[in-house]
Structure formats: C-alpha cells, structure tokens
Amino acid sequence: MVTLNSKIPEGPLEEKWTKYKANARRVNPANKKKLDIIVVGTGISGAPAASALGELGYNVKVFCYQDTPRRAHSVAAQGGINAAKNYKNDGDSVYQLFYDIIKGGDFRAREANVYRIAEVSNQIIDHFTAIGVPFAREYGGTLTTRSFGGVQVSRTFYSRGQTGQQVLLGAYSSLSRQVKEGTVTMYPRRDMLDLVVVDGKARGIIARNLVTGAIERHSAHAVVLATGGYGTIYYLSTLAVNSNASAAWKAYKKGALFANPSFVQIHPSSVPQMNEFQSKLTLMSESLRNDGRVWVPKNKGDKRPANEIPEEDRDYYLERRYPAFGNLVPRDVASRAAKERCDAGYGVGPTGLAVNLDFRDAIKKQGKKAIEAKYGNLFEMYKDITGIDSYEEPMRIYPAGHYTMGGLWVDYELMTTIPGLFAIGEANFSDHGANRLGASSLMQGAGDGYFILPYTITNFLAPEIRTPRIKTDLPEFDEAEKNAVENINRLMSVGGTETASSFHKRLGKIMWDHCGMSRNEQGLLEARRMIRELREEFWKELKVPGKTDEVNQELEKAIRMADFLELGELMVLDALNRKESCGAHFREESQTPDGEAQRIDEQYAYVAAWEYNGENEPVLNREPLNFEFVELKQRSYK
Amino acid sequence: MQNMKLKLKIWKQRDASSRGRFVTYDLDGVSPEMSFVEMLAYLNEKLVLKGDEPVTFEHDCHEGICGSCGMYINGYPHGPVKGLTTCLLSMRYFKDGETIVIEPWRAKSFPVIKDLMVDRSAFDKIQQAGGFISVAVGAAPEANTIPVRKHSSDLAFDASVCIGCGACVAACKNASAMLFVSAKVSQYALLPQGRPEAKERVRDMIAEMDKQGFGSCSNTGACEAQCPKQIKLFNIARLNREYIKAL
Ligand SMILES: Cc1cc2nc3c(=O)[nH]c(=O)nc-3n(C[C@H](O)[C@H](O)[C@H](O)COP(=O)(O)OP(=O)(O)OC[C@H]3O[C@@H](n4cnc5c(N)ncnc54)[C@H](O)[C@@H]3O)c2cc1C
Ligand code: SF4
Ligand code: FES
C-alpha cells in the first residue's frame, strides 16, 4: 500500500489555485537552463507543456512516435474546446463549467482539480487566439461558440469540424519556435519502452529509434508523460490506430499507480463498422447532435429506407426518454440508449447495429448552407467513407470506444506516485471522473500543459538545482535497457503463426463485449479468464517478421500488444471491483428501475488507484473523494 | 458488393542507401468497403503469415487529418480521386482485376526511409524557421480584444487546414514546396496577430525551403490539383506578394 497524498491546497475552492501559485517554490531563470525535462508526447498536452517549459528556459527533450509532432492523435479532435468566457451572455461562469464537469463525470473527480481547469480555460482561448488559431467568428469580428453535448450553455470554441487540428497546429507552431530558440530538442520516431527510476525519482527513459531500431537512453531531472489514452485497446475505436498504453503501462510497472482504468467513454456517434478488415471507427462529432435528431423505426425490423419512414413510425428515443436534454444528453447516456434500442431489435442498416442521425428538420429550418457552414467537412468525410449523402438521407451512427478517463494517478501537482514523474492530458486520470463532457479534453490537455504543469513542476525541481545532469551510464539505465532488449528478443523469438493485429482484434472483442458499454460480474469474470488465456496464447503463437535493427512495424505492434494484454486485465479487475454504476461505467447490477445508472456513494465515492504487485494481484489503494462544495446528486437529464 | 482481385505493383526499398524495385503481389478478397490503407494492411497480414516481408507504409488517424499516409497510386499522389487522402480513398473506386501501381513520394527533399515511408522532416525545418507567432504563454491579451474580419478569418482557416502530407511536393515536377509554405504564410498573413512578424516569417521560411532543396515554383498548378485539403493556388500568389513586401 502507498499513502496517497493528493496535496489539495486548503481554503475555499476559488482560492486554492491562486494560493497554490503564490506559495509554490520557484526556480530562478539561471538555474532553469541546468535542468533537463523529458516530455513524452506532442499532443494537445505534450506540445503545450514542452513549449511552455522551453519558454521558461528549461532544457526540454520531446519524444513522439510519429515522424513529426504535428501528427499526434489530438489533431483528429473535431468538435471544439470549452471555456467559461460567457461570450453568449447565457449565464456561464467558471463555477458553472466546474459544476458541469463534476456532474458530467458523475461525481467521481476531485473538486479542486476540476475547478482549476475551469479557471484556466479562458486563458487557453486567449493564448490560442494570440498565436493565430483561427477559431470561428461572428460577423462583428468576435469569437463565436456553440453548445456541445451534455450542457445547456454555449461555451465551445471551434474551427469548423477540425478544432483539434487547429489547436494542435497552434501548439506545434510554438513548439517549433522553441526548437528554433534551442530550448527544445525534438526526438520524433521514437517509442518509449521503459521509464528509468534512480533513487526513487524518475530520471529518464529508454526509447527505440523506429528508423534504425537502436535502443537509446535519455536522461533528465524530471519526466512528463503526455502519451494520451488507451482506447485502442478495443481494437476498433475512434483513436488514431497507433495510439497505445505502453508508456503509462511501463510507468505503472515501475511504481506509478493506475487510477480508474475501467472508466472508458464510449462515444455515441461513430460511423458503424462496415467490414471485418476495418481497423478504425471514424468519429462523427457530437456537435452534430445540436442539429441532428436521433431516431430508429418504431416498428421492429422496419427495413424501409429512412426517408420513406413517416413521422409517426419514427421513435426519437432520446427526445422521448430525456425531454429536458433531448439529443444533447451526455455521451454515456446517448451510447447506452443506442445500444438498448439496437439490442432490442430496432437498429438500422445492414447489421442492425446503427441508429439514424437525421438533419432533415434542421436543413428545412436553417437551410442547407447553414448546415454546410457548420458541419461541411463532417458530411464530406461521412460521404467519403460510406458513399451516403447526409444532406439527403440520415447518417447512420453507432457507439465506439473513444476516450479513457482512467489513467495514471496524479496529485494536485500532476505528479504520479513516482517523484519526478508527471502525467498530463488524457494519460492522467484527474479531471473527468467517470465520464468526460464533450470539448473538455482539449481544454484539459492544453490547460495542463500551458498553465498548470509549468507552475507545479517547480516544487519538485527547486530542490534539484544542484543535481548535475543525470548520467546515462548508471546501473538503473543498464537494467532498464537490458529489460527492454530482452522483451524485444522474447517477442521476436516466439515464432508462432498469428500476427499482433490478430491478437489485438481478439482482445478488442473481449473488452468490447464484457468491459464496454455495459458490464456485469459474470461477464467480467469470463473476460478475465479469456484475457489470461489469450495472453498465454500470445506468447506461444505470436509471429513477428523481420529484424530488430530496422523499421519493423510488426514489432512495434507486438510491443504495444503485450502491454494491452496486461492492461486489459487490470481494466476488468477495476470494473469488477466497482459494483456501482457511475458515468460511463454501467454495472448492470446497479441501475434504477427505469434503467439509468445508479451510483452507490457510501461505498464507492473514491478513486481506485491500482498498484503493481509483480505476479500477484494488483493492490487497490483508495483515494476518498470528499465533496465539500457541491452536493452529490443522482445525475438526471430527464 | 463483390470482393475484388487485384494486382499490386509496390515499390520495395530496404533503406535510403539501397536501390529499390517494384514487387508484384496478387491480392484476392479485397472488399470494396475497405479503405486503401486497410487494403494494404490486409495485404501485410497475408504476407506476414506467409513468411514474407510486409510493406512498410505510414498511417495513423484514418480520417484524412494527421497527414501520415501518402503514396503515389497509379501515378497520382493519394490516388486518382480529388480531395481524398490515401486513408480515405475507398477501394470502391477500383475495379476487379485492376493493376495498381504504388510508389513512395519521389522528391529529393523527401528521402525514402523504407518502401513507401519517406522522411518529411524538411517540412518541420521550414516551420521552425518562421511558422509561428511569437507570443509567450501568459502574454496573450483577452481573445476578443483582437477583432478579426470574419472573411479574413475564414480565409486564414481555409489555408490552415494543410495536413503537411507532402502531396504537393510529390505532384510538382520541380518538387517545390510552395503550396505548403504558402498555406502557413497565408494563414498568419491574413490575421492581425500575424502581421508584426510577417516580413521575417516569409523571408525565413522561403530561405529554409530553398536550403532544404525544394525546387522552385513554375505555376503549373499540379500541387493544387493533388492537394487532399484543396489548398488553393492563390495562396502562392499571396506568398509572392508578402515576399516582395518583405524584401
Ligand atoms: C476522433 C476524436 C475526436 C475528438 N474530439 C474532441 C473534441 O472535439 N474536443 C475535445 O476536447 N476532445 C476531443 N477528443 C479527445 C481529445 O482529442 C484527446 O483526449 C486529446 O487530444 C488527447 O491529447 P493528449 O495530449 O493527451 O494525447 P495525444 O494527442 O493522444 O498524444 C499522444 C502523444 O504521445 C506520443 N506517444 C504515445 N505513446 C508513446 C510512446 N510509447 N513513445 C513515444 N511517444 C508516445 C504520441 O506520439 C503523441 O505525440 C477527441 C478524440 C477523438 C478520438
Ligand atoms: S498543401 Fe496540401 S498537399 Fe501540400 S502538404 Fe498541405 S495538405 Fe498536403
Ligand atoms: S492516416 Fe492520417 S491522413 Fe491518412
């Protein structure tokens, strides 16, 4: 067991962050140059962190597996980024944003962290605007917003349907500036294989050069993981296909706790699976639900084309079940409702695993042009993939694995349980509780990177100014490198007959069926058994071609797959442990009479932080969640 | 829809210093619903199981937004369909029995790393030379204190959607990077926030472009025709104007 100290500052909610900053230790500019920081990841958390730390004068080394930082998975975010600007005069405020995130997360996040992210949200928009991110504007020249799933105010800033691209490229431009300034060194095409811990502190990483295959040692005074989420464990998900859990998983095995691993958001609107070779489900931004109406036929097995089904034979089930929020209910609610309809036999499309998202009424009311201006690129993408023109007939959508609220446990300073190891963005667990609200991940990533980590990291670094550059010939580096090489050699020498992708598909199916949108004890126990068997089979039947000292994409996949096969079991264990339903975690044993999620606050108002324990069952550490400022309520969107 | 049988002629090259060659593969069972990269992944799955070497190629988002994917398909960067990246190119655009020729980008500034994978880091260098607005974290004014004409903002957005895939360079007989550079220069030139550094930016980015060995622009427009994000040629005209102003 470890003692979890969340380091939440004392005092009223609104003053915690200000007080923290006032009291934080500082590193003087002359000393910053002497401190090395490794940032792994260049998404919307890593690129901001690296550029902000570089601007402050630290010596920053940045890693990503892509050929350039600009391609990090964040680039694919579509809908927008939240901030509490209240430009629409609709009663928004920092408190309202905080409350929406806490409530949306079904009261399983830390109040202090959430309030802080809401507090910095406005600065993020200011900064991105100043560095040239073209957010959508009104004719008067000011910024505009739209409303986004799960809230009743309009606070989402956007750049058509490709906000992630725009903010990421903004962050990439600042990162590029720091590379020019010489404060940041880029190491692209590297896979982090292990974390190096020296005397209890994170001091470096082992990385594989994906072009030459060379195993490299990199040292620093502190390490920041901004390596994103692990939703690709489902194989089919909305994430970029190379997204993976390995960096966080290796940190876990070196002693960092993994929090709420089973909290995974299944997004309600992706393009349904079309063929068995598909490796990715394309997201259709939930902003579409602002204007699109979700429905299925009222009659089971109604195979008429959607446009031929008259109004009276349509079941707008979200509007029916949730009159107050209608099509804008949070993602977990919308996903489960779609699954419920499809499982009951009302699904549409060739597989019956889809529901309609219909723009007919919106086009009638606002005109095609207005709809095109808002969602043009999404309609295009949908057409590219399916061949269907959604101006003429409804889109078909189905839920898909999308975002992992779980991640490395961090304290208020965003530091893991390994001193000197920080985790930001989707890689940590901190702000979204059991369910994330739309457009708040870009906000959290950029907030962590630009405005929070640069302050909180100094408490760790201030006492380190006299620590000389960390040498890479320390025995801890030898050991970590040896383990990484052995792992690779083991994978290469299995000599079986099945590819890593094939194992990935099989694991994905187990996770989707038993640890996806809805879970129960029996299914989870079954899943645990199946994952263990699959893991054994993997180490007997895996086939990796080629050599280790060259580009070897099959080896890259195998390395990631070995970690997924371990993480999958931890997710299941976590889901088994939490016998309540909360947010995206729906335990069938715990529901209200009308089928909504039923929390059990007396028993489960805690963060489940798992500790690696070698071959033995991981140890559960509980961080109690004390709600001092909001009242716990059963979520209702009726 | 019926599955297809294809003949694939794919460029195989061990590394930058080796000589490459075409290898022909017969591939059966291709579903018209696959995307081009899924088709290649399907080929690789078969190759690995047979004990052959898979084809190295890059892909990540499968949504046409990360810019990882990219290859010549039957002589066209990203294939024959306008406005699509390789990952969004559906196999329904191909016919049963067809031969498809697949090659890596061919440009001096994009050396081949392996098979269809090339080194596009020259684009990063150009961006580092000046593709940014120098505002430090914490120094930004309140966002609405900088009003921007909606029209300019929309044009800036249209230029900003470049995914850095390199198809423009690959399409150009001179292997010029002008469309790519013009997109970035235009985005910032059109916004008031970008004006203070406009001169240095365009000078430095052009200088770096030359240094990276990209060719010059002879206005043939092949880049625009092949750009999956439909970045327009008039951005190059704007780049030229900005450049002249900066001299
Ligand atoms: C399709 C889609 C649409 C979305 N839309 C929105 C939206 O509209 N609004 C919103 O707020 N959120 C949205 N999200 C969520 C949001 O995009 C992500 O949560 C967020 O971008 C994650 O950012 P990140 O910085 O944590 O990680 P990522 O962007 O995932 O970056 C991870 C980085 O880590 C690197 N990395 C990973 N593993 C390793 C390793 N082992 N070695 C070296 N490097 C490694 C990668 O190279 C990459 O640079 C969306 C997500 C998806 C999938
Ligand atoms: S301008 Fe077009 S073709 Fe060139 S890199 Fe950008 S998106 Fe690709
Ligand atoms: S894989 Fe990202 S653009 Fe094609």
Give an account of the 3D structure.
- The complex is a heterodimer of chains A (about 650) and B (about 250).
- Chain A is α+β, with helices and mostly antiparallel strands and about 650 residues long.
- Chain A is built from 17 helices and 20 strands.
- In chain A, the strands form five sheets. Chain A has a five-stranded parallel β-sheet.
- The longest helix of chain A has 25 residues, at about 555-575.
- Chain A is globular and about 75 Å long.
- Chain A starts with 15 loop residues before the first helix and ends in a 14-residue tail after the last strand.
- The mean pLDDT of chain A is about 95.
- With about 250 residues, chain B is α+β, with helices and mostly antiparallel strands.
- Chain B has two domains: about 5-115, Ubiquitin-like (UB roll) (Roll); about 120-245, Orthogonal Bundle (Fumarate Reductase Iron-sulfur Protein, Chain B, domain 2), CATH 1.10.1060.10.
- Chain B is about 35% helix and about 15% strand.
- Chain B has helices spanning about 35-50, 120-130, 150-160, 165-170, 180-190, 200-210, 220-225, 235-245, and strands spanning about 5-10, 20-30, 70-75, 75, 100-105, 110-115, 115-120.
- Chain B has a five-stranded mixed β-sheet. In chain B, strands 6-7 form a two-stranded antiparallel sheet.
- Classes of the chains: A alpha+beta (about 650), B alpha+beta (about 250).
- At the A-B interface, helix 3, helix 5, helix 6, helix 11 and helix 12 of A face helix 1, helix 2 and helix 3 of B.
- Flavin-adenine dinucleotide binds next to helix 6, strand 7, helix 7, strand 16 and helix 12 of chain A.
